[in-house]
Amino acid sequence: MAENAEHPAYPVGLRLTGRRVVVIGGGQVAQRRLPALIAAGADITLVSPSATPSVEAMAEAGEITWTRRRYEDGDLAGAWYALIAATDPEANARASAEAERNRVWCVRSDDAEAATAWTPATGRSEGVTVAVLTGHDPRRSAAVRDAIVEGLRDGSIAAPHHRSRTPFVALVGGGPGDPDLITVRGRRLLAEADVVVADRLGPRDLLDELPPHVEVIDAAKIPYGRFMAQEAINNALIEHAKAGKSVVRLKGGDPFVFGRGMEEAQALAEAGIACTVVPGISSSISVPGAAGIPVTHRGVAHEFTVVSGHVAPDDPRSLVDWASLAKLTGTLVILMGVDKIGAIAEALMAHGKAPDTPLALVQEGTTASQRRVDATLATVARRVAEEDVRPPAVIVIGPVVAEGPLKTTA
After folding, report:
1. Residues with catalytic annotation?
2. Which GO BP terms, alphabetically (predicted)?
3. CA nearest 167: which of 256, 272, 255?
4. I want to staple 201 with a disulfide (CB 3.0 to 4.6 A). Which of 29, 157, 252, 389 is the partner?
């Protein structure tokens, strides 16, 4: 059975939906292999006197049928495929022999040479399944698999769709700034885009990776004319999509966390344009974490609240209940509040928040320019002026700021 230049293994994709699959042994091998078999829709019977907690949970959920005993001759009757992974070599050998007699494709975890099938290193990316076999070198198989899947995901391996595509817009959350913190799906959609409408706070380094034909539009420089800024951005998305382009709206953080993503989604829906939302890592959690500040910590904070600070507490447009926030004992995270932090601190203290409550401002979080400035509610206005703290910066207020110290790298 050894794969060589003369007799390589023959690759094939098994369609196991509704077909009987038998797994012998409920240990770590079964735990790794069962999810894919379940996803394939197989009718799975596990034969094993014991199982890992994860495998047991699959049985309790009804995803597999668990026969709680050792393997017995005849257990593979009617099976299309068998995975043999018991800890008893003698039982594995007998099960393998039964599979051979009954022409059941059989994978052996303990003896690949005795098997009639091998499990490839498998990965998936948007409907493409990559399966790699390199004989007796599973680490190389996994490495090749990972390289191909990553290339498909980030666009470095071109795999264009050769069917006509319906124009669409993707609202992609780019994360807090570090280009490595965008989601895999977001990066793949960027690689497939014809037009990218980018925010100032989006991960700018990702734009350098785009192919030359991709049109990059700086949302801050769209000519607004008689339109409001957001209306002009909405119109740009609609116009490019109607022109048959695949459009990515690249936003900082998450599209729906103070990102006006819903306004854009609603405008696209009204124009009859398909829209997909790709969540991003919100700066409200990731930036404090990058600076060594947990937004929750056992015994210190059981909740955290995220608010926008772009409107001052005494502004009639403010929708934030600062009096209630002052009474909370957890963590308060403020976005877009650098220029209003003095007024915000005064409002919190006026409503009962202790003046010595710890506070930290994290500027340019997760990037090479990240810096952290610590203060209290009573001193923050002065500290911001002394340190010349500028947007973008995330403000964290509460006892979690004093936890640590934790050494972090941006």
Report:
1. 199, 221
2. cobalamin biosynthetic process; methylation; siroheme biosynthetic process
3. 272
4. 252
